[in-house]
Amino acid sequence: MAKEKGSLRSTIAVSLTNYLDAGAIVAGAGGLRLWQDYLGLSNMTLALMNFISANAVGAAIGAIIGGILADKYGRKFIYTYNLLVYMLGVALIICSVNLPMLLCGFLVTGISVGVGVPASWTYISESSEVNNRGRNICISQMSWAFGPAVILLLGMLLAPDGFLFGWVKSVAHAFGGESMPTNSLNVFSSRIVFLTLFVVAFIAWNLQRRLDESSEWKTAKACNEKSENTGLFHAIRVLFSNKIAVRTVIFLATIYLTWNLVASVMGFFQQYIYETLGGVSNEQSNWMTCIQWIIVAGVTFIYSFFIDKISHKLIYTIGLLVAISAWVLIVTIGINGKTVLWAFAVLWGIQGGLSVQIFYALWGSELFPAKFRAGAQGLAFFIVRGLSGIWGFVYTFISGDSPEGFTIAAYCMIALLLISLIVGFIGCPNTRGRSLDSIAKERYGENY
Prior knowledge:
Layout: H1 2-30, H2 32-39, H3 43-52, H4 57-73, H5 75-94, H6 99-126, H7 133-158, H8 165-176, H9 182-186, H10 188-208, H11 215-227, H12 234-241, H13 243-276, H14 282-304, H15 312-333, H16 338-353, H17 356-366, H18 373-399, H19 403-427, H20 436-444
């Protein structure tokens, strides 16, 4: 019981990384129009911001670095230093007065997010009991949902038409004077939202740097030091020399990539889509998205009680069928109308609570041995977020600002989700209720 409580406490501390990941994505998306008006940004510049952010290439670069470092120096090494980088990136965004500063802030924040992801999912699995591993991953996913919900709620309260904008104006005038232009004044609401992420990152850093090192990593490290080279890229060379590991990376990258190409568009462009194509106000689009994320958290909370007891293949399939039905709604009825938008938001929220990301995080930490567990996850995450960044440009080109273009993009989304469904259904591993050691021995042999 004491160990279970300890794993739950460490899971909560580590899960703040997911809050900061999703929070950074949604804070950027929620303030998109404000930064666009303030700096006079084009649609292609918005796509570039998405490309280098925590939603795409920034996180991709960070993941490959973080995975290698977590396997070489330990999970605790990441928790000791990484959120300091995150705070630097967020501080750059808060203080941005031109496009280079803003882009630099998005990139640094994105890299930090990527560094933390493979270490966090790995640490959660390694510190969990066999019958609670899925539950703890779900707790992490709940944090990923609470981030957007909280950030969106703050964004609505602090927005130019929000209840707390009077306070925002006071803060803005204190820094920029009473004659501040309207666009400069309005963007302060986004700056303050990012300031809350800075505060949470500081709290999370203080909690995470006190965590104990993973016992699984320490054992693997001791074995490696006795028997083989421990150079920085050695684990990656070992990974690529193992056919089972390479096939597993391909499997995980495929199911996560095809789902994430859709999810990344929703993460960064959702409110923009609702406003420009759905014809709703900024406040209405924010409420829809906020409630959607609350649904994600609620469904994940319920699922956390069952994930270690029922078929993973069943839930994986249900989640993707719900996701596909949401986009089928768009292509059959159309996006212009509050009823359709609300139905889409609810369905997308339900699938989020059963999402592929839960299974990617769970299987990614179960299907590799400790010596390259974080590195393998980092490689898969690098592939996924990197290609998601490129897809952001492709989506912008396909969709544009027209309903016809968005319908074409919606068909692409359905095709991607179908691939994720089929590949995941066929390749779903049998890992539920088994120790990480027994899974590794079965897949890689006794001397893994």
